[in-house]
Amino acid sequence: MDWGTDLWDQCDVIDKHTQAGLDLLERYIKFVKERSEIEQSYAKQLRSLSKKYTKKSAKEEQECRFSNHAAFQDILNELGDYAGQRELIAENMMTSVCVELTKYLQDIKQERKSHLSDAKKAQQTLESSFKHLESTKKRFAKEWAEVEKASQHAEKIESDVNASKIDVDKAKQHLHARTHMAEECRNDYAALLQNYNKDQKSYYFVEILQIFNKLQDMDERRIRRLADGYCQFSDIERKVQPIIAKCLDGISAAGAKIDEKQDSLLFIEQHKSGFERPGDVEFEDYTLGIKPAGSDSSLNPPRVRAKLWPFNWKQKPPAAEDFSHLPPEQRKKRLQAKINDISKRLNRAQEESEALEKMKGVYEHNPEMGNPSTLEPQMTETTLSIGHLKGELTKYETWLSEAVGGDECINNNNTSLTVENNQNSQNIYTEFDDDFDEVENPVGQCTALYTFEGNSEGTISITEGELLSVMEEDKGDGWMRVTRSSGEEGFIPSSYVKRSS
């Protein structure tokens, strides 16, 4: 059974049915989009919650030596990884379902429109043929009526005794002409009727059948694609369930590894004074005379002078424009990054200047397209910007040259800072901000638990079981920077790897 055979006369019904199917597909796309937005918002709130309770101060970091404090930090880290999986669900729903189904919806809308247009054209062609047939039929009827009138008139003239032979011949000739025209109309009508019956048969048994069957095939493909979209909705979340389960297992493991006895021992080691308990208070017999003041035993232990707060700590120097407050390697990296940024801005400004020059030339040769003088302020501003950027570029290149050739001098300056703080030379950089980049040395090793395809900018691909060097820890956003054995460097999800002990 198919639409072309059984629904040949239900074009309007098919139109409404296929439109309802497209409306359902569009509703599902909106539903998945809103679901992905909920997932994204949920992940964002989880990250915010994890960041809120993560230890930050030195005192809190000290507390993390206790297993119950450290376990809570592990739970917060696992929660960050869990949030990353919710973000992955949202991203995959947008790309795999919303984006692909939206494109498919546009294609199928166009296909439906084309099929319905073909059906309408075929119907209009048949109706036009029928109107032509009706017009020819009416003309034939009209001509035949004229023949009958001419025949009656000829008979009347012929029976009139007063009519001349010329009048009789004229009436017969008129009858003959009318009869000939009626015969031609009759033949035209018969030919058009035959063609119309042929067109009607082709329309109902070939054209409309093929068009409606194509619409049926289109609608069935739409249903199957929507069914796949329904399955994708659950498959996307099912794929991250193993990783989510590992996050939950990590939370359970964090609670299981708490050692209350060890925490108590650690607390004792941190705070025990080492003093002996007070001994018995001796009896002082005043009948034998007053003893000298002062006793070897006292209820109070010897007082220990509390450590004064180190008010002589040195505040961090304000950031200098030439980054001279940074270590040598970090200074060179920051200067080079600044030079690259200025170069890009300079190239854009030069391209804009060239475009304005070309536009001015066009306006000068074709005044009707615009007034060249209107471009002068923008050209002047661009020229000034180019001059400023070139000056900035030269300045930073000079500083970079000094940094490359003057590492020893910079190191001496940094050493002088440590003298003020009575610190050793190996602690020269302890005063710098935490967010400044350290020398690019690995901070640890990790092993890939899963394969990750790094398709977006800044990420790299890893394979399951691969050993990686950790260059930058997860800062609460669910990503860490690693280097492969081949030297390739980029970001990967933190939950996809296991840190090596």
Description:
This protein has 501 residues and is mostly helical. Helices cover 66% and strands 5% of the residues. A 5-stranded antiparallel beta sheet has the order 4-3-2-1-5, with no helix packed on it. Helix 4 packs antiparallel against helix 5. About 11% of the residues have low confidence.
Short description:
This protein is mostly helical.
Write the topology of this structure.
Layout: H1 3-6, H2 11-53, H3 58-63, H4 67-159, H5 165-256, H6 260-271, H7 328-365, H8 376-405, H9 407-420, E1 444-448, E2 467-472, E3 479-483, E4 489-493, E5 497-499
Antiparallel strand pairs: 1-2, 1-5, 2-3, 3-4
Helix pairs in contact: 2-4, 2-5, 4-5, 7-8
Strand content is: under 5%
Question: Structural class given helices, strands, pairing?
Answer: mainly alpha
Global geometry: elongated
**Unreliable stretches, pLDDT < 50, 5 or more residues?**
293-316, 407-438
SSE topology string:
HHHHHHHHHEEEEE
Keywords:
five-stranded antiparallel sheet, elongated, 9 helices, single chain, mainly alpha, 501 residues
